[in-house]
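2024-03-11 09:14:02 INFO worker-7 job=invfold-0412 stage=load source=structure_tokens
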């Protein structure tokens, strides 16, 4: 067996990379699409890594330099995408090698957290990533579209819904919405242009209040009598109601409407016939890359006093996170995490993996769930006190990479 090496991809590797991606993700590329991708292949915000054997690409992945909101603060995030391997090179440990290299690269470049869309949750859990988000997918039939019209046609109209020709007006509304959740991207204009415009095609409709302020919008397509809402954001109850009525106004041309919403969304509660298709779908995974830097930026709930916790974290793939730490949380919510040589016999002790810590601090699950499945051990009192310091922001993500 020939010796394999791992290195960043160059423009000379473009054809091999596109060939592997096209095969692995089962999408053929036209000559025009290939040239478009060639022009952005070495985007300064992307880091492409590959494993080679005899100069042939065996496996690859791309690291995206992004930011997400956590507790209403932006965190530098490494988004892992395009993980792929030729069938004859699978089960040789190539992807594992790439992930370890990417973790080191992210730490060196200030990414405190990483996210990815898994092909297998079990596989990525072995490397410290953990499920951090699920969303609701709604599907309304003709009966419920008609019901929407009946329930909202008498809603007071204090503003208007308009179709928009540009995405620019949406930027600020999106950011006001995104900051409410843990895990939403802090989008750049480049992301809007390269990702949203190309992947979320169709009509853009926005709701303006009586002060002519945009308070919500939808990006949607209608095809074969089905309305697919690619993105729906409402900042106010009024905006949500008027956009629901706008959906219902399509009753003569659609028999089905689908969209996604946060996991704690309560739309069905307000519908007179709440029995319609609703799915809860696990989505992305996340893992803390550098736990000390992450905690330094993370904001806990304020309290009447400072608190100290001794925490044992297991992370075999990022040894800088593996060990015993002293967590000090000030009354203000600011915190520090310091690695220790041994456990303080007088301190509270909590033991957990880096994946469990990630899901906990992102507020995806409460400590009771981790206890139920033996994902955390230690002082019940310490766990209870730490849970009270974790802010309750719902996890959500409207993007894909």
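2024-03-11 09:14:09 INFO worker-7 stage=emit residues=401
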């Amino acid at each position: 067996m020939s010796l394999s090496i791992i290195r960043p991809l160059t423009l000379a590797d473009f054809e091999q990379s596109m060939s592997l991606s096209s095969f692995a993700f089962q999408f053929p590329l036209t000559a025009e699409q290939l040239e478009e991708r060639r022009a952005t292949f070495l985007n300064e915000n992307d880091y492409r890594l590959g494993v080679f054997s005899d100069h042939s690409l065996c496996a690859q992945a791309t690291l995206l330099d992004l930011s997400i909101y956590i507790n209403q603060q932006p965190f530098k995030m490494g988004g892992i995408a395009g993980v792929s391997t030729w069938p004859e090179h699978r089960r040789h440990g190539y992807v594992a090698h790439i992930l370890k290299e990417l973790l080191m690269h992210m730490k060196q470049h200030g990414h405190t957290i990483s996210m990815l869309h898994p092909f297998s949750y079990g596989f990525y859990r072995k490397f410290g990533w953990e499920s951090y988000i699920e969303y609701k997918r709604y599907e309304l039939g003709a009966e419920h579209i008609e019901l929407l019209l009946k329930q909202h046609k008498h809603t007071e109209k204090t503003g208007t819904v308009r179709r928009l020709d540009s995405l620019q007006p949406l930027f600020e509304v999106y950011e006001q919405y995104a900051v409410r959740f843990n895990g939403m991207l802090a989008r750049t204009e480049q992301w809007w242009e390269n990702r949203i415009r190309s992947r979320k095609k169709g009509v853009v409709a926005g709701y303006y209040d009586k002060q002519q302020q945009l308070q919500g919008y939808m990006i949607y397509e209608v095809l074969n009598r089905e309305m697919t809402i690619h993105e729906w954001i409402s900042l106010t109850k009024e905006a949500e109601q008027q956009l629901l009525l706008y959906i219902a106004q399509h009753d003569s041309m659609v028999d089905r409407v689908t969209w996604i919403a946060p996991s704690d969304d309560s739309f069905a509660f307000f519908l007179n016939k709440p029995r319609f298709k609703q799915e809860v779908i696990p989505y992305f995974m996340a893992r803390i890359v550098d736990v000390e830097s992450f905690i330094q930026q993370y904001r806990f709930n304020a309290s009447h006093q400072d608190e100290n916790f001794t925490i044992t974290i297991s992370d075999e793939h990022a040894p800088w996170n593996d060990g015993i730490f002293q967590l000090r949380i000030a009354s203000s919510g600011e915190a520090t995490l310091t690695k220790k040589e041994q456990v303080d016999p007088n301190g509270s002790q909590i033991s957990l993996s880096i994946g469990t810590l990630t899901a906990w601090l992102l507020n995806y699950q409460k400590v009771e769930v981790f206890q139920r499945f033996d994902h955390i051990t230690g002082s019940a009192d310490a766990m209870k006190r730490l849970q009270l310091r974790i802010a309750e922001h719902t996890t959500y993500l409207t993007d894909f990479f």
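2024-03-11 09:14:09 INFO worker-7 stage=report msg="The chain has a mean pLDDT of 94."
2024-03-11 09:14:10 INFO worker-7 job finished
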